[in-house]
Amino acid sequence: MTSLLVTNIGELVTWDDERPVIRDAALVIEHGKVTWLGDRTAAPDADAVRDVSGAAVIPGFVDSHTHLVFAGDRSVEFEARMTGRTYEAGGIRTTVAATRAATDEQLAANVARHVAQMRAQGTTTIEIKSGYGLTVRDEARSLAIARQATEETTFLGAHVVPEGSDVVAYIDLVTGAMLEACAPFARWIDVFCEEGAFGADQARAVLEAGTAAGLQPRIHANQLGPGPGVQVAAEVGAAAADHCTYLDDADVGALADSGVVAGLLPGVEFSTRSPYPDARRLIDAGVTVALATDCNPGSSFTSSMPFCIALAVREMGMTPLEALWSATRGGAFSLRRDDVGHLAVGAKADLVVLDAPSHVHLSYRPGVPLAVPLGT
Ligand SMILES: [Zn+2]
Question: Is this model's pTM higher than 0.85 or not?
Fold first, then answer.
């Protein structure tokens, strides 16, 4: 088989400027790429045909922020938090101890299990960070394992200062020997810029060192309170500032002016019972917004992009169409990718068929497994 016609598509979401949503559509795939799309009645012949019976077809989700290389879980911490305690960044150290103690095989099996869960829910592009090793050896092996699952790997040695380390000495390590060992397995450099983690000067130093080593910057910013993270992102030309829960007007202006993508991660606010970021304010200011799971065992142990879409619509002021855009095209912008997150001639044929006639059902029917990648 060389070409496949997917036809009888009730609603095809493309994100094309002229026709972002096409009703009664069809699409042709050849060698993993889209070679034609448009009105069903105008579709060319192909070697094989798949009739989706009026279902909606959307681009696969682009999950631009996950922490999948870890061992253990933190359900006890979650349970405690749900009885009244608040999340603090230090909880990361629990996962660091479990991750260091795990074998490469155990970590790789854990990554593979979570990636399979993501794919089964419609995610076709996944970013994976290190950050639970915090030694040269453990960060490098975390990234080598992540690289087996995706090209979108991020060195996050500056996740938290490991127990027993001095912050200045640790920054020297992260920007020196650790960066050198990790850079061959990473595309991105990231830092957790937050009270209790790393300050503005330290974040800048990490991102500049990473950039000098050929990596591209992104940042964890303004999650737990107001802070300098978003401004640092704009200064260094980061692709994305993720979390963006506590922003002042200058932060919103900096995101809009710089083109830094604001990555919103509502699984965190859900799982930590915290106030959600104000997506409406960002979109109205002209900021590019991405949605991602932040899948990690501490603050957001969900691998479901549809769940995040439902939260964004219900809790963050996004329309169903905006939330889908942010979970697909927005995620692709966050990863500086033009071949995924949309459907166009030449783009990857990362199609997801919904067991529904419209994308609205993703938030209208939360928790229901509607999104299935084509071919599964
Ligand atoms: Zn994160």
Answer: yes
pLDDT single digits (tens) 58-96: 999 999 999 999 999 999 889 888 998 765 545 788 899
How many helical (H) and strand (E) elements, i.e. helices and strands, does the chain have?
A: 15, 17
65 CA from centroid of ligand 1 (Å): 6
Look at residue 1 in the predicted model and tell me its pLDDT: 66
Angstrom distances, CA of residue 261 to CA of 142, 164, 217, 221, 242: 26, 35, 12, 12, 8
How far is ligand 1, taken at its centre, from the CA of residue 283, in Å? 21
Convert the pLDDT of each residue in 232-250 to its tens digit: 999 999 999 999 999 999 9
Contacts of 72 (CB under 8 A, 6+ apart): 94, 95, 98, 99, 297
C-beta of residue 359 within 8 angstroms of C-beta of residue 328:
no
Q: Distance, CA 93 to ligand 1 centroid (Å)?
A: 14
CA of 153 to the centre of ligand 1 (A): 13
Task: Determine the distance separating the centroid of ligand 1 and the alpha carbon of 216, expressed in angstroms.
Answer: 16
Q: Which residues pair with 221 in a beta bridge?
A: 193, 243
